[in-house]
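Lab notebook, bench 4. Still working through the backlog of constructs that have no structural model yet. Next entry is a single chain of 117 residues. Request: give me the structure tokens for it.
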Amino acid sequence: VQLVESGGGLVQPGGSLRLSCAASGFTFTSFAMSWYRQAPGNERELVAYITSAGGSANYADSVKGRFTISRDNNKNTVYLQMNSLKPEDTAVYYCYARRYGLNIDYWGQGTQVTVSS
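Model written out:
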């Protein structure tokens, strides 16, 4: 099983980034997908969640209207489009897969996002 994140980097405030998470080794279409983030000294927090079929998504209040989660079940990939980035969005972003009911979950290794001028 692998979840491989990419797309992180350094961006100026107000800029945009698109994170990708490529999944392999499990039935992607059976898993809800989420993005979490963890800043230094902080607990890991949920950023965005999308259902297995992609029909519903939820967001943390801090990113609503700026971030969009999506998935392509043909490519086994989930995305996080991040716009209007703020310095407080700086964190390591993690991809998370969970199959509810069977309590099976997987984490990616994380990708660093730094928002700074």
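Notes after review: Residues 37 and 93 are 4 Å apart (CA to CA). The chain is about 0% helix and 55% strand. Flag for follow-up if needed.
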